[in-house]
C-alpha cells in the first residue's frame, strides 16, 4: 500500500490544516475566557451593531480575493479542495459538480434518455448537453474529437461520450484523485480517456488537436484565465469550437470577455443562462439537502452549503440579485 498516494496526501494535508485550526481555535478560546468581560462587550458590538456589516464586508473581501481573484492562492486552494473532496467522498454515485441547467417549467427537463444513475444528476448533465450542442446540431458531434478541460468526476464527459457519440473524448483535470476516480469509474478506452493536467499549461496534449473544447464551471478556479485561452487556441483545429460556461461577478465580465477574444477566437454566440441555472438549483435543492444530511458532518455541511448553491448560499443570492451571472459562450477558431 502506498501511504503517500495522492489520495492519502490530500487527506493528510487536510487533517494537518484541521489540527492547526483546532489549536488556533483553542488559543483564541483561552484568550476569550481569560478576558471574559472584554469578550462579552466585543461579542455584543460585533453581533448587534452596524460593526457587524464591516466584519462581513472584510470577510467577503478576503474570501473573494482568495477564491476568485488571486493567482497562486486561488489555484492552490481549489486544487486542494477538489482533490480532498474526492479522497474524502469517493462515492461512485457523485459524478458531476456543476450548478446545472433547467427549463423554466415545473420539471425543468430537456433530456429524455438518462439512465437511473444519470437521473440523479439530471440538471448537471443538462448543462453539459447545452454546452456540447451549442452551435452544433446533434449529428455534428459524430466524428468529432472532444476535449474537456476541468472534467471533474467525469459524469458530464461520460454523458457526451455515451449519448452524443463523438469520435473521442479526452478529459483533463488538475486533481489527480478525480482523474483516478474517472479511470476506475468509467474504465479507459480509445474513445474516452482522462488525464491529469493544468488548464494553464496543456503541453501534455500537444500532439493532439480537437474539434470541440468544452469548459464547464471550472474557469473561475484558474489563476491566469488568459493563459488557459491561449492553450485552448493552440489545441483547436481550424474551424473548431470552444464552448465555455461559468459564473462571474458582473464587474468581472468585461475582462473575462476580453480575455476570451484575446487570441483571435471569433465569438459566435453568447447566452445569459442565469435564470436556467437558478431554476436547476431550485429543482435540485431537496436532493442536495438530503445528500448533505446523509454524508456530511456538521463541519462539512456548512462548507458544502457554501459551494453547493443551495438557496441559503451566497452564490444563490448573488445569482438571484444578478450581481453574478452565469454565461455560456461559443467561440470559433477561424
Ligand atoms: C466545479 S468543478 C466542475 C467539474 C466538471 N466540469 C463538472 O461540471 O462536473 C471545477 C473543476 O475544475 C477543476 N480545475 C480547477 N483548476 C484547474 C486547473 N488549473 N486545470 C484543470 N482543472 C482545474 C477542478 O479540479 C474541478 O474538477
Automatic annotation (TrEMBL):
<dbReference type="GO" id="GO:0003838">
    <property type="term" value="F:sterol 24-C-methyltransferase activity"/>
</dbReference>
<keyword id="KW-0812">Transmembrane</keyword>
<keyword id="KW-0808">Transferase</keyword>
<dbReference type="GO" id="GO:0016126">
    <property type="term" value="P:sterol biosynthetic process"/>
</dbReference>
<keyword id="KW-0472">Membrane</keyword>
<feature type="domain" description="Methyltransferase">
    <location>
        <begin position="142"/>
        <end position="260"/>
    </location>
</feature>
<keyword id="KW-1133">Transmembrane helix</keyword>
<dbReference type="GO" id="GO:0005783">
    <property type="term" value="C:endoplasmic reticulum"/>
</dbReference>
<feature type="transmembrane region" description="Helical">
    <location>
        <begin position="12"/>
        <end position="45"/>
    </location>
</feature>
<protein>
    <recommendedName>
        <fullName>Methyltransferase domain-containing protein</fullName>
    </recommendedName>
</protein>
<dbReference type="InterPro" id="IPR025714">
    <property type="entry name" value="Methyltranfer_dom"/>
</dbReference>
<dbReference type="InterPro" id="IPR050447">
    <property type="entry name" value="Erg6_SMT_methyltransf"/>
</dbReference>
<dbReference type="Pfam" id="PF13847">
    <property type="entry name" value="Methyltransf_31"/>
</dbReference>
Amino acid at each position: 500500500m502506498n501511504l503517500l498516494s495522492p489520495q492519502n496526501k490530500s487527506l493528510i494535508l487536510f487533517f494537518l490544516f484541521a489540527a492547526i485550526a483546532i489549536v488556533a481555535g483553542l488559543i483564541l478560546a483561552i484568550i476569550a475566557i481569560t478576558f471574559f468581560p472584554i469578550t462579552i462587550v466585543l461579542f455584543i458590538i460585533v453581533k448587534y451593531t452596524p460593526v457587524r456589516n464591516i466584519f462581513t464586508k472584510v470577510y467577503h473581501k478576503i474570501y473573494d480575493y482568495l477564491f476568485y481573484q488571486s493567482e497562486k492562492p486561488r489555484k492552490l486552494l481549489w486544487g486542494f479542495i477538489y482533490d480532498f473532496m474526492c479522497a474524502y467522498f469517493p462515492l461512485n454515485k457523485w459524478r458531476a459538480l456543476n450548478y446545472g441547467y433547467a427549463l423554466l417549467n415545473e420539471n425543468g427537463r430537456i433530456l429524455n434518455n438518462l439512465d437511473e444513475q444519470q437521473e440523479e444528476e439530471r440538471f448537471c448533465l443538462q448543462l453539459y448537453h447545452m454546452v456540447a450542442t451549442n452551435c452544433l446540431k446533434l449529428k455534428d458531434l459524430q466524428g468529432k474529437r472532444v476535449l474537456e478541460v476541468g472534467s471533474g468526476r467525469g459524469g458530464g464527459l461520460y454523458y457526451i461520450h455515451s449519448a452524443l457519440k463523438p469520435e473521442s473524448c479526452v478529459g483533463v483535470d488538475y486533481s489527480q484523485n478525480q482523474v483516478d476516480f474517472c479511470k476506475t469509474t468509467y474504465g479507459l478506452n480509445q474513445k474516452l480517456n482522462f488525464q491529469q493536467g493544468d488548464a494553464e499549461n496543456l503541453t501534455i496534449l500537444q500532439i493532439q488537436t480537437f474539434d470541440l473544447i468544452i469548459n464547464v464551471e471550472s474557469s473561475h478556479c484558474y489563476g491566469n484565465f488568459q493563459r488557459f485561452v491561449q492553450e485552448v487556441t493552440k489545441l483547436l483545429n481550424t474551424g473548431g469550437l470552444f464552448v465555455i460556461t461559468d459564473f462571474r461577478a458582473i464587474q468581472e465580465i468585461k475582462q473575462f470577455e476580453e480575455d476570451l477574444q484575446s487570441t483571435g477566437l471569433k465569438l459566435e454566440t453568447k447566452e445569459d443562462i442565469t435564470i436556467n441555472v437558478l431554476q436547476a438549483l431550485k429543482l435540485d435543492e431537496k436532493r442536495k439537502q438530503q445528500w448533505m444530511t446523509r454524508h456530511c458532518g456538521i463541519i462539512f455541511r456548512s462548507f458544502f452549503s457554501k459551494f453547493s448553491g443551495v438557496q441559503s448560499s451566497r452564490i444563490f443570492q448573488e445569482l438571484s440579485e444578478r450581481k453574478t451571472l452565469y454565461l455560456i459562450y461559443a467561440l470559433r477558431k477561424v
